Amino acid sequence: MLTLASKLKREDGLKGSRTSATASDSTRRVSVRDRLLVKEVAELEANLPCTCKVHFPDPNKLHCFQLTVTPDEGYYQGGKFQFETEVPDAYNMVPPKVKCLTRIWHPNITETGEICLSLLREHSIDGTGWAPTRTLKDVVWGLNSLFTEDFRNKVEDYMKRYAR
């Protein structure tokens, strides 16, 4: 994580000292996504729920990381659930792609690990889908909320009301 941030700072310093454009400019160019991710990862790590841990397999690739959620309440208490997150090049106009790696029965997670969470949808019927103002912190807190007692109560209320 610090490696990419250092790279961004170093590049900004080099911009002022360059006198002519070189062929290596294209290799040094950093995407908007990566610039956003440096800020968002720092904010995420400062505001991570106590039940979540983030792991970056490659500190130079902030767009690929793993999240571990270990719920401390509800049906899933004591479990350990792994999620893989990939942030596409078009971020923040499109949501990150998240997949659950742990096999689990959950009303919002399919057998193949796809997650039904409105903020992970590019377009949502209820209007709470992805927006450019959302961040990785929102994604992590949203995934964490799938395992809280409050979520369980909402599912039970829904089942009582609509299940026949």
From TrEMBL:
Keyword Transferase part of the UniProt annotation: yes
Sorted UniProt keywords: ATP-binding, Nucleotide-binding, Transferase, Ubl conjugation pathway
Enzyme Commission code(s) on record: 2.3.2.34
GO molecular function per UniProt: ATP binding; NEDD8 conjugating enzyme activity
UniProt-annotated catalytic positions: C116
InterPro entries named in the record: UBC (IPR000608), UBQ-conjugating_AS (IPR023313), UBQ-conjugating_enzyme/RWD (IPR016135)
SUPFAM superfamilies: UBC-like
UniProt domain UBC core: residue ranges: 32-164
BP terms from Gene Ontology: protein neddylation
Pfam families with a match to the protein in the record: UQ_con (PF00179)
Alphabetized PROSITE patterns for the sequence: UBC_1, UBC_2
SMART domains: UBCc
Swiss-Prot/TrEMBL catalytic activity: [E1 NEDD8-activating enzyme]-S-[NEDD8 protein]-yl-L-cysteine + [E2 NEDD8-conjugating enzyme]-L-cysteine = [E1 NEDD8-activating enzyme]-L-cysteine + [E2 NEDD8-conjugating enzyme]-S-[NEDD8-protein]-yl-L-cysteine
Protein function: Accepts the ubiquitin-like protein NEDD8 from the UBA3-NAE1 E1 complex and catalyzes its covalent attachment to other proteins. Together with the E3 ubiquitin ligase RNF7/RBX2, specifically neddylates cullin-5 (CUL5). Does not neddylate CUL1, CUL2, CUL3, CUL4A or CUL4B. Mediates neddylation of the CUL9-RBX1 complex.
Assembly mode: Interacts with UBA3 and RBX2. Interacts (N-terminally acetylated form) with (via DCUN1 domain) DCUN1D1, DCUN1D2, DCUN1D3, DCUN1D4 and DCUN1D5.
Name used for this protein in its record: E2 NEDD8-conjugating enzyme
Species per Swiss-Prot/TrEMBL record: Neovison vison
